[in-house]
Design goal:
Chains A, B: InterPro entries: DNA-bd_dom_put_sf (IPR009061), MerR-type_HTH_dom (IPR000551), MerR_fam (IPR047057). Chain A is mainly α and 124 residues long. Chain A is 69% helix and 3% strand. Chain A has 2 domains: 75 residues, Multidrug-efflux Transporter Regulator, Chain: A, Domain 2 (Orthogonal Bundle), CATH 1.10.1660.10; 46 residues. A two-stranded antiparallel ribbon of chain A has the order 1-2. Chain A binds a DNA duplex (30 and 30 nucleotides) through helix 2.
Amino acid sequence: MRIGELSEATGTSRRLLRYYEEQGLIAPRRDRNGYREYDQANVDRVAQIRGLLAAGVPTRIIRRILPCLDNPRDIHLPDAPPEVLSALEDERDRMTRRVECLTRNRDAITDYLDTVCTRASVNG
Amino acid sequence: MRIGELSEATGTSRRLLRYYEEQGLIAPRRDRNGYREYDQANVDRVAQIRGLLAAGVPTRIIRRILPCLDNPRDIHLPDAPPEVLSALEDERDRMTRRVECLTRNRDAITDYLDTVCTRASVNG
DNA sequence: GTTGACCTTCACATCAATGTGAGCGCTCGA
DNA sequence: TCGAGCGCTCACATTGATGTGAAGGTCAAC
């Protein structure tokens, strides 16, 4: 599929799809005329990228973690140098902290909404 | 405490502390000479803000959710208009999606690291 | 009373993620 | 064969979160 179709399928502007490519997050083949050629797997990958971006993970980190996620059974970096591994560990820990922070705050919002709702139904 | 001390205590630049204030996220008292005066509660609040920012929540949303979190037992917006409540619900749902995305990817990284580690100990 | 370490505001700079548009090349259907 | 609609690159604009620095006020210590 070409960029317009992927854009439709992912709800992502063409501009951004090209940007992700520039950032090394996706690598479409090129058609003879220079057009980008995507396949179905790219739809999932773009969703992945956008989820991570929305969760505050910057592209330079996404670039690092994506290779580990395609095919969890495969080793994509069999000779990954220790500093890459420890960078991954750091990022994993950062993600854990984010999850905790988001969860805590989300639960507080939920409590708040529950309280407001309860009181509204009692008082109103 | 003044801005320098809060900066120390939170590991946040003075510039950013002023920025958060400008964004309506904290509201320090002013001393007679114009200096900002903070108290201990601001340390937690700044940590909260930074956690949310790191998790991809923009300041305009943080501004909205902070009032619900100070004192979960209190109703801070007893007359919150329905559109604020539904905005909060939306944000809660967005946070849930972020948590899911982060968790999924973090677990994949963990699996990856485990696999690399296992193989290293088998092969090496 | 001057020095130094704070504080203030204001303003311009940067970086990442995006938008927007110009100028041009394919390609397909009328 | 021409125009619409897609693609390409290049480049400048914007927004949000930050850095940095200038010009100046406050205050404590010496």
